[in-house]
Amino acid sequence: MYNYRRQTEESDRAVNIVANFWLNSEPIFFEILRGKVVLLLFFNYASREWVELSRYLKEWERRYFEKGLFMFGVHVPKFPFETNVENISREIKRLGINFPIAVDNDWINLSRYKVLELPTIILINRDGLISYSHIGTRRLWEVEFNIQSLLIKAGYRGDFPLPIGSRHEFDESFFYKVIPEIYAGYSGGSLGNPEGFASESVIKYEDPEIYINGKFYLSGEWYNGKHFFKHQPAEASLGVIILPYIGTNVGMVAESTNGEEINLIVTQDGEPLSDENRGEDVFVECGQSYIRICEPRYYEIVNNFDYGEHILKLFVISEGFAIYKFSISAFRTNREPVGYGG
User: Fold this and answer.
1) In terms of CATH, what superfamily is 181-332?
2) How far is the C-alpha of 291 from the C-alpha of 250, rounded, in Å?
3) Which is it for the CA torsion 107, 109, 111, 113, positive or negative?
4) Which of 281, 286, 314, 336 sits 20 to 30 Å CA-CA off 163?
């Protein structure tokens, strides 16, 4: 995902958000926010970008709320389960998000704010005029510089900390080919097995043992949904997902469709993950690495230190595991811990 930054002439006036529901607040109206700098975020929660961005958002709120910054988000669904307000509420609580969230299941506000991709951050000045927009999670220190600039224009005269990530930030995807998103499901999925898709049906797949980057592969019996593949064997048997990839980090959007926790065994290049390269949602126990899946959300699997080519495998026995998407990146950052210098 590429960044797009737009510095306007501060002539576009922010319009009130239309929402199906509001979380953490009653409806927000810009008329009552005059005099404040407003950060308006458009996002969907089941994504790598949201998890990464949430860390910045919490720190920006801590640093700048008392200086005159007001933040709220607009959640726009990409997957069917993201229209469920209970799923959204559970995820923002899990990540410790306390600012208001508007739930826009009908995508009404995207065109009103000319939003082309998610996530998008829009900064609004003290007079209610749009001043800046930013797509994605690269170079977020630029967003913080603009927050500081608008706070000064709004009248703040105190000191500011150094923006998070402005010291060291490195994205190897500028130099190497990375396929950032690989979708499952028969509607636009990137399945590499020669058996192919069969909509709303169960197919028994075999591991072809020859892989192409940009595809994923299945072994076992899997139900073909429009947006997902679900492990659905006739009798208890092993299912495997194989993902060849080039990059540093891998995560997936997944869920347990039966509401019970499902443990998957995870290997990379035939070996268990370790404390050095496991993602935040992976745990190591008795020499094996596992990822525990339950509610529908983004799960971080691998966090390699170096860029490279690997084969990731997920082994599942339990029925009901569903995979929607893999996310791959080459982004590495060496920055001060969040909270530094606030």
Assistant:
1) Galactose-binding domain-like (2.60.120.260)
2) 13
3) negative
4) 281
Element (H, E) at 5: strand 5-13
Residue 254 exposed, middle or buried by CB count within 10 Å (0-12, 13-18, 19+): buried
Note whether 79 and 225 are within 8 A (CB). no
Domain boundaries, the chain: 5-166, 181-332
This model's pTM is above 0.85: yes
Confidence band, pLDDT 50/70/90 cuts, at residue 332: low
Place of tokens 């927000």: 28
Average pLDDT score, the chain: 91
259 pLDDT more than 80: yes
- Mean pLDDT across the stretch 106-110? 96
Which residue has better confidence, 289 or 171? 289
| Region of 231 on the Ramachandran plot (φ > 0 left; ψ -120 to 50 alpha; else beta) | beta
- Which amino acid is located at 191 in the chain? L
